[in-house]
Design brief:
By secondary structure, this protein is α+β, with helices and mostly antiparallel strands. The protein is 17% helix and 35% strand. It contains 3 helices and 8 strands. The strands form 3 sheets. Strands 2-3-4 form a 3-stranded antiparallel β-sheet. A 3-stranded antiparallel β-sheet has the order 6-7-8. The protein has a two-stranded parallel ribbon with strand order 1-5. Strand 2 and strand 3 form a beta hairpin. The longest helix has 12 residues.
């Protein structure tokens, strides 16, 4: 098997959890993706990553929300190949969702239109990993205890 080198790579695509600015390659916020500092998990907020990666490797780098990228993959190559509309949920450290409507990925004006895990289901409810309250993800995360 031949060894892959950077000369063989035309571009890098990244699927990142959270709200992503796809035009500028910035993680706007990602409650399930970050670093531990002084023993406290701190989610990534306003982190530029596509640009520095592109500069370091010398190839184009593109990024998108992981659930949106998964929905696009299913739509183009998987179970959604023969449909015009598709809704996909991803379940992992959080709850992601991607929607294809009339053959187009739905992202909204800021890129986070279908973050269903961060929709309020109980006003003033439990605190979510993003810091807000009552989100679906606050109740259905893998480490959540329901009472």
């Amino acid at each position: 098997m031949p060894k892959l080198t950077l000369k063989d790579i035309g571009a890098i695509g990244m699927a990142v959890p959270g709200h992503i600015d796809t035009k500028h390659g910035i993680i706007i916020w990602s409650p399930n993706f970050g670093i531990v500092k002084d023993g406290i998990f701190r989610m990534f907020q306003d982190v530029e990553y596509a640009g520095p990666l592109s500069k370091e490797l010398g190839v184009a780098a593109h990024a998108g929300n992981d659930a949106n990228i998964a929905a696009l993959g299913e739509f183009r190559y998987g179970a959604g190949r023969n449909v015009d509309d598709l809704v996909m949920f991803t379940l992992g450290t959080g709850i992601g969702s991607g929607v294809i409507s009339q053959g187009n990925l739905v992202v909204g004006s800021t890129g986070g239109a279908v973050e269903l895990g961060h929709h309020v289901i109980i006003a003033g409810g439990d605190q979510c990993g993003c810091g807000e309250f009552g989100h679906l993800e606050a109740y259905l995360r893998p480490n959540t205890r329901l009472s």
